Amino acid sequence: MIRTLQEVLERVIARFYDQITTYVPPLIVATAILVLAFVLAKFSQWLITRLFKGVAFDRFLRETGISSVVDDSGHLHGVPIAARCMFWLVFAGGVLSALSVFDTKLTTQFVETAVFLFPKVVTAAAIVLAGIWLGRYFGRGILVWAHNESLPHARRIAAGVRALVVCIGIVAASDTLGFAPNVFLAAFIIVVGGAALAASLAVGLGGRQTVERFIEEDQRHAAEPEEPLWRHL
Predict the structure, then answer these.
(1) Higher-confidence position of 78 and 100
(2) Does pLDDT of 101 surpass 50?
(3) Hey, how many other C-beta atoms are within 10 angstroms of the C-beta on 170?
(4) d(CA 79, CA 131)
(5) Rounded to two decimals, what is the model's pTM?
């Protein structure tokens, strides 16, 4: 009985020693990699903040309207954002390197998936951001056009166009990620089809006079003779 307990205890100690010798060295190496990655990420963030002023880049963000997409106040500075992005990029690389040290099936699959998805995530984020920016641009253009043409509910029309463009960006981003692209596409088609049907019914039932007046004014402007180009000379 005592010998049996001794054999069990020896096996437990041997297995525990096996686990320690298998996982503790990679854990120490992974911890060292994480600390080094954190230091390098902080240094990269500090270096970008010190070396670059970003005046031209901030002016570009303001002139293109991208700053108002991210920050409603429009006071967006590109250098702090670039510095934070560099910090997280370097630190994420360190985390993946630390996980790859364990060399298990789970960690290897996780690292491969993260590396494979990273370009797609960046592309999808850029598509969504471009969709929001284009939605605001087209929305403002439609708002000005509808106001100049004296169309009713100009703000609602502009909001609908803006939402439509953003939805197109989301559908394109989901297709890039491969995340339920058919579901987003079907939802987009249903929403656009329903909006088109609702607009047709609204025009047919309640907006006929407005459309007729708009067409008559357009025909009247087209029938007016054009002024000669050199009349002012």
Answers:
(1) 100
(2) yes
(3) 18
(4) 23
(5) 0.62
Write down the H helix ranges in the chain.
2-51, 55-64, 66-70, 78-102, 105-148, 154-177, 181-205, 208-223
Q: Give residue for tokens 């995340």.
A: 179
Alpha-carbon distances of 180 from 34, 163, 176, 191, 222, rounded to whole Å: 34, 20, 10, 17, 49
Contact yes or no for 33/96 (Cβ under 8 A): no
What average pLDDT score do residues 210-227 get?
A: 63
Q: Are 95 and 115 in contact (CB under 8 A)?
A: no
The distance of Cα 14 from the centroid of its chain, to the nearest Å, equals 51
Cβ neighbours for 168, distance < 8 A, ≥ 6 positions apart:
131, 188
Asked if residues 67 and 54 have their Cβ atoms less than 8 Å apart, the reply is: no
Question: Token pair of 32, please?
Answer: 């060292």
Q: How far is CA 149 from CA 144, 145, 204, 208, 226, in A?
A: 9, 6, 19, 16, 20
Say if residues 98 and 37 touch (Cβ distance below 8 Å): yes
